[in-house]
Amino acid sequence: MAQQERQRLVKWLLIALAACVLVLGGAVSAAALMAKQFRDSEQIAANVSIVGVPVGGLSVPEATQEVLRGWAANLPQRVRLRWLHGSAQPSPEQLGARLRIDQAVEAAHQIGRQGSFITQIIDRVKLSRSGIDVPVPSEVDEEAVEAYLVDLAAKVNREPRNADFEVVGDDVHVVPGEVGVQLDIAASTHDLAAAMQDPSLRTFDLVTKLQPPAISAEDLQHLEVVLASYSTKFKPWQTDRTHNLGMAIANLSRAVVDPGATLSFNERVGPRLSEAGWRAAPIFINGEVEPSTGGGICQVASTVYNAALLANLDIVERHHHSRPVDYVPPGRDATVYWGQYDLKFKNTLRHPALLIGDISDNTLTIRILGSREDKTDVTIASSAVQWLDFETKEQPDPELELDKRETEKEGRKGARVTIHRTAARGGEIVRKERLHTDVYSPQAEVIKVGAKLPEDVLGEGGALTPGTEGAVPGAARPEGPSAAPVRPPHTSLTPAPHGATPPPAG
Asked: For the whole prediction, is pTM greater than 0.70?
């Protein structure tokens, strides 16, 4: 009996298994049929999306339009490229970016259609549970990115700008400098091309190299006031001399004299050579006015000298002209001559001093800038000027009619003067000194006296015509045939000694 029960149970199990096989086979056949029908259709599987846009049940063209309308239309139309001083906003197309929506739609269409039958079944199970989202790939042409950045470099690149200053009245205002920028094209191309793989990219900071200015605002923070300013007048129509003034000012301007340092006018201005651009203009040479290369720069030296005095700087070396000049009072001039005579002053203040020059219209100005702590009230005083009269020299001129007189050179008085300086800060005297005593030699006046005899008085060979001796004042009759003709007398004055004569000067 037990044996029969076991056989009956096995039989029913076999029947049930056969039924299951038939059902499963039918299900598989049905699934296969459905899969075939799906593969043969144009529709994208249900629960498929492209970058978040549902496209299940849509055809490829319909899905493409849906992605364009629901996603691509909302993407940034420009990418803002930023750097230190600015920005640019090219389109993704200008940077060689291309959205491959066609590839994304094709990938979405292949879900449930590609791979083995089992793979297709697994994909459909995923779709039924959570859906599948397909990204849109972006292709970026690095050569296009590089080409755009090469053109952009002209706008990005900027040389550093040093900090500067402006003078308003007696106050000095520092103008901050700017950091220089150089676009790193290689690094920016690589990083930007990678970032452009994200179609939603809106901003990108370019890779740049920064170069700080050589002179920062901190370097100029001690420039607060005009310590001293001095101006002199010149004749702009004297073009060669004016040219030399401008060259000297250009070489001197913005010279920085640190505390304890000494400025040399000659070292700063340089040799006065024609090949360097200097021109010939009148200067004093041994008390006489003659043209010389670099003529005129003594006016610049004199202006600097007075500014240095008024800034309460120490004068290390200074020489005066052989004659008084007309652009500064006696005792306030300074002459320079390359290789021999210089103007030097030392900064004995607590902070650096900056010398700036300006030339405009008919005025030459030197300013010395520095810290408010170093500002003093300086007074330059001179003793009563002792004027030295000039002598008159008469010279016979055989080309000038007899007894006529013409002034060949006007005389100029000399002078003797002593200069003192007093400096005060906050009402308290901090310096009181006698600077120097200068003696300027007078310039003799030269008068030409006519010595030309009338033609009716002279005979052949220049001898006096017989019978005309009395017609010529001062003439004597020859006492023999061999006696030389007698000329009119003239006066010769011996010039007074001038003493030590300072060097040539402009």
From this structure: no
